[in-house]
């Protein structure tokens, strides 16, 4: 029998024109919180286009209320502590999410690193990106593509148009710090 995390994800895809998914590290990561806030800001546009958003994490479920409180995100969330969904996404060639050994932070099966992907009902991948953790990106924390620019290209694709952006801007440390200061 298929694990619940995979069933939940497949149900989202089956019941939406497309799913805009964001994999995040945890409630403690300011870059993740900022990225989820960006997704929240796009949520109305995505839903207007008959899409659905979802956040996915390998962090224990007890931390999900902190993430929701910090971001205002109320949409679907999948807690995948065993990384079964992440493994399935890789197997299906949807996105290859890096898993870091973070047992000291209580990620028993490793921590899924940041990723963003958009998949159509039927399985066509419209966009995929996954961080490769390195010293230069603070172990997978920074240098994430701006979700607004990804949305512009996904929206264009949904309407049979050319991509708006040929490359994506990234949010750096300064932008996350400014956002953190504004939210206090």
UniProtKB/TrEMBL annotation:
It holds the Pfam family AhpC-TSA. Residues 16-127 form the Alkyl hydroperoxide reductase subunit C/ Thiol specific antioxidant domain. InterPro entries: AhpC/TSA, Thioredoxin-like_sf. SUPFAM superfamilies: Thioredoxin-like (SSF52833). One of its GO terms (molecular function) is antioxidant activity. Transmembrane segments: none annotated. This is Alkyl hydroperoxide reductase subunit C/ Thiol specific antioxidant domain-containing protein.
